[in-house]
Design a protein that fits this description.
By secondary structure, the chain is of the alpha+beta class. The protein has 5 helices and 4 strands; from the N terminus they run ααβααβββα. It has one domain: Glutaredoxin, CATH 3.40.30.10. It comes from Metabacillus litoralis.
Amino acid sequence: MTKSILIAFIIPVIILSSCENVLFSQGTTDEELTKDKQLLFFSDDDNIDREAVYYDALLDIKKEFPEEIENMKVFSEHSDSKQYEVEVDIYPSLLVIDKDGVVVHIEGAVLTKEEIMEPIANALSP
């Protein structure tokens, strides 16, 4: 009985210790992500209902550009985005930036997701 309890605790420890922890692995840094184009989304926590069109557009963009959406940075109105040196006054805002600066800046209320998808897709296309 004692052996089976001991084995039941030792085997998971061995298995889990061999797994790689994503937080401590050497992944891409923010500097590496900004070498190419980077998506930045600025959200207004107080008016999320105005962002529905943005979310619909982002879901469609994800089909064509999954890696860019995976690396997208999301900021709330009150968070610190100074590392990207962009000025956002109107929320919601969606930006595509590269090492030279802002490539596309969509801000505020938009009527259709196509108003978001077309310029973003054009900016992210090689």
